Amino acid sequence: MSENYPFSRILVYLDGSEGSMSASMYAVLLARSTGASLHALYCINTKALGDLVKAHIFVSQEKAEYLEDLNKDARRHIRHIEKLAQSKNVTVRGEIVEGSPSAEVSRYIKANGIDLLVLGPVNMIRSRREELTSENDRMLRTASCPVLVCRDDEKLWQMFEET
Amino acid sequence: MGLIDIIRKDLIIVPLKSSKKEDIIDDLVSLYCEKNNLDETRKAEIVKAVLDRELIASTAMDKGIAIPHAKIPGLKDSAVVIGISRLPVDFGGAEKSNIFFLLLASQDKPTEHIQILSSIAKLCTSDLFVRMLSASKSADEVYQLFFD
Predict the structure, then answer these.
(1) Which residues of A touch B112 (CB under 8 A)?
(2) Which residue of A56, A69, A82, B91 pairs with B66 in a disulfide if CB–CB is 3.0 to 4.6 A?
(3) Which chain B residues contact residue A52 at CB under 8 A?
(4) pLDDT on residue A55
(5) Do the Cβ atoms of A106 and A118 come closer than 8 Å?
(6) Which of B57, B115, B147 is closest, CB to CB, to A48?
(7) CA-CA distance, B34 to A153, in Å (whole number)?
(8) What pLDDT shows up at residue A46?
(9) CB of B4 within 8 Å of any CB in chain A?
């Protein structure tokens, strides 16, 4: 643990959404002001891809095409957070994994001693249907460490520019 | 954004009146274009993208569900248009389809596209949900099913 803070290893989860970009900015600022190390994880959801093929919604050719798109998206977002971190003199360890996002985040937290997970916004509760639960919601419920949810995109972007 | 964030009551057709695959796709895309003020040229591009995907293999699944979908260049936000037909239609699958989810996906957000399709697929594993969708008599009833 850092001397004055209850966490020393921050993980931010990236999924390509604007919300996860805001979370990245917040995580970079948090790492800079607390001295905590920063990790960034993008999980390519191969579990969902496999399920879509099994359900005959995707054909194999389409699965391969999406895998390529997702890999490009993952690399783009890891590069993006590296640039954000660099601009604030913070080092980030970025990693791309494949599988079920909530399970992979849980695994990463345990394997790397993460003690704070930073997420983009979670859904408002508009449906009780479990099938409509987002990956961020699942992570919020299943993470074995404290979770920080970033909400106000515009304010965060402004804070990042000004800090 | 997940499925729940993009479902709109004004993008649901109950009942669909067409009885051919191409016409159903046209009806669903037309509604999307009408609600988003898109012109005929754009509509033709979207219809072509969806039909091109159907040419590779039909997106008809079991339980009478079909999920035509395509990545649309220049689309900012993903959208779903839902249609329920009273009579099952030959959509190219092993069985006929009467529930249609048209997903138009932003090219720049593959993770979102996968997540939305995955939510639709998971919802449709519930026999009760599918029966209730099939029996819905209005867009209101369909919309409400997702927000129970």
Answers:
(1) 16-17
(2) B91
(3) 114, 117-118, 121
(4) 84
(5) no
(6) B115
(7) 31
(8) 93
(9) yes
CATH of domain B8-146: 3.40.930.10
| B77 neighbors B36 (Cβ within 8 angstroms) | no
Q: What is the pLDDT of residues B47-92, one digit of tens each?
A: 999 999 999 999 999 999 999 999 999 998 899 999 999 999 999 9
**DSSP assigned state of A131:** G
Topology annotation, domain A9-162 = Rossmann fold (3.40.50)
CB contact at 8 A, A58 and A67: no
Q: Where are the domains of chain A?
A: 9-162
Interchain CB distance below 8 Å, A17 and B112: yes
- Closest Cβ opposite residue A52 in set B1, B5, B117: B117
Q: Looking at this predicted complex, what is its ipTM?
A: 0.77
Q: What integer best gives the mean pLDDT of chain B?
A: 93
- Predicted local confidence at residue A126, as pLDDT: 62
